[in-house]
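Homework help board

Subject: predicted structure for assignment chain

Our instructor gave us this sequence and asked us to write out the predicted structure in token form, then describe one feature. I got the tokens but I'm not sure how to describe them. Can anyone check?
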Amino acid sequence: MNFRKSMFLGLAMFWSVSAYAQQTAPQPLTSWSCYAVKPGKEAEFQNLVKEVGQPVRDKLMADGVVMGWGLEVSVLRGHDTTTHCIWYGVADWSGIEKVQAGVAAQIAKLDAEAAKGGEGKKGAKPAGNTMANLREVIDIEKTKDYVTRDLVFISGPVPAAGSLPWVRYNFTQVKPGHGGAYREVWDKYNKPVLDKLVADGTVLAYGLTVEEVKTTNDFTHFTWYAVKSPDGMDKVRSAFIADRDRRSKEERDAITAAFLAVTNPEASRSEVDRSLILHLPGQK
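My token output:
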């Protein structure tokens, strides 16, 4: 996403949150690491993701620490300096610490195995370490990390194993001091439409999100939603149009005025990502 200027994308999708947990209004954290993968190195980068981070995140997901994780790429190229984002969801900062410690241990393990495997082989090429391998496939100077929090998170049934959703991100800049008013307007006019789309299976999950650690002034809030395939975005658009069309002109004008009063529309932007990897608890 351009939240790769911010994040991205994307998406935090924690289908592991139960119906009970949804009723207690969880506000999970998402950690994002966004990378500028060198042209032609995409497959090598994905292999490194599977070798280094995947075992750690899968293990912590089985332990109940990680609520889900994935790898996404932006569908629309050329708008940012990064190309791929790895995200994972946790309940709190202790979860982030556990993931970081696990990845560091995994890197040390892989480096030790590589060094041991190269010992005693006459003329053998020196074994590369993990960070050296990573530098071969990414422009490491452009790497960006973010931590976001879902103020609202709603999901439907857990998608099947192998599902690779598409995610739309709508970034909004709320005027200073108007966060509460924006949330009220959003809850009143946008949330009911998205709730219906989750109920009918069009939307897999959605959220209203902010940066937990502020790194950009480009936006203050973003709404994200995940769908099974690109045509789901057409259905979401049609649902919002239908919701507004059923209202009187006076009500539509009031809705527009309510949003304009609390946001800077000139700063709004959107992004669409597609998933390359998605791992969630309970997938079958």
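Reply (TA_rk): Your tokens look well-formed. For the description, you could write something like this. Residues 93-117 form the longest helix (25 residues). That's the kind of observation they're looking for.
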